[in-house]
Predict the 3D structure of the following.
Amino acid sequence: MSRLWTSEEAARATGGTATGAWEATGVSIDTRTLAPGDLFVALAAARDGHEFVAQALEAGACAAMVSHVPDGVDPAKCLLVDAVLPALERLGQAARARTEARVIAITGSVGKTTAKEMLKQALSGQGKVHAAVASYNNHWGVPLTLARMPADTDFAVIEIGMSNPGEIAPLARMARPHVAMITTIAPAHLEAFGVIEGIAAEKASIFEGLEPGGVAIVPLDVETSGILIDTARTHAAEVVTFGEAEGADLRLTDVILSDESTVMRLATAEGARLAKLSVSGRHYASNAVGVLCAVAAAGADPTQAAMMLSHWQPVEGRGQRERIVLSQTDDIAIELIDDAFNANPASLAAGLEVLAAITPARGGRRIAVLGDMLELGEGAEAMHADVAELPSMEAVDVVHTCGPLMEHLHTALPGAKRGAHEATARELCHALPRRLRPGDVVLVKGSKGSKVSVVVDALRKLGQSLGDQG
């Protein structure tokens, strides 16, 4: 690994004091994933990171960023700062200042992580790409991503999220993007905002961080596109729109779904174009169109990016597909769609559309296993019940549910589709296996707090996973 920070550089960036000399090849906040050579940042979360400094140094950390030297720790192995989180922010800002990378920032109610991973793949053949790990998109995730950015990065992809008003703009100003993209606006975190327009205004505040001459990428299909465009015009030198709506600068005119691919027809200023993804999903097509806009705005080649994008696959918990073999002869299996990381009405509708487009093996069925969609505020019960009316539900054979909110969907379903309902995901783990049969395609989706990931784990334990099929 190449050098990322010297003790002198890190001290100067943070305003801290380093009494010893060291070189960091990475930055970590978690001893479980720390690599030798990392600078360990002792953030306070569920527990105070200072409790883990000795453990981090034993695991090979070159030093630790601390606000006080823990008992028994060598001061020469410490970067002493006034407060750890503000110092991490300053380290991230210094990393951003020293690079000539083209920076792309992404937010949206749905699809942030997917679009970030797509951009990482799309740009991978055109330079050195740095992107956030997992969904590191909050008040510590953004500065951590920036602090980890090598100086010789060509393209940086920064994911920015929020749970409450006022969170996006400060992070956007920290990232200072040349391109800022909004994937879509949907009723996620509605509990904190009351109305969808409030969510749109918060998401649009990402444009406040744009560099001079910056480009705003805006979805034209959403009802709140006017709010997004008005804000974008205030802060961006150029506004580029995408989506299926008439008038979009990059328009998605047709989406053709099959079991394992999505073909997109695009209307551009230069004429009609085709693009393909090696995964099924209309929502993936929408994200891909926005990504191609961002690629062009960042000065990269969209044709080459589209070719690279055709190899993209979803990550774990975001629609990843895998085969779970239930016999030694490989002839009895189910297919799992792991979409258990998050859920709101828009993303759940997209997940069900993917399930509906898949043809099960002989004798198999389309099965949905759904946990509560959280933080929807007033009307959450009706939003859950309304899932029964989605067009894609016609193709779903059985729906198993868990949680107090999903009970409203369970009640709204016709009897033939109504599967098991349990109070918790863990209880559903016990009821589900005996209700499955060979050939079934099983979608598992719910908000992270619904803990439906335990259902994914239980299904994987039924047999040997043969990896991504999708």
In short: DSSP finds 16 helices and 23 strands in the chain.
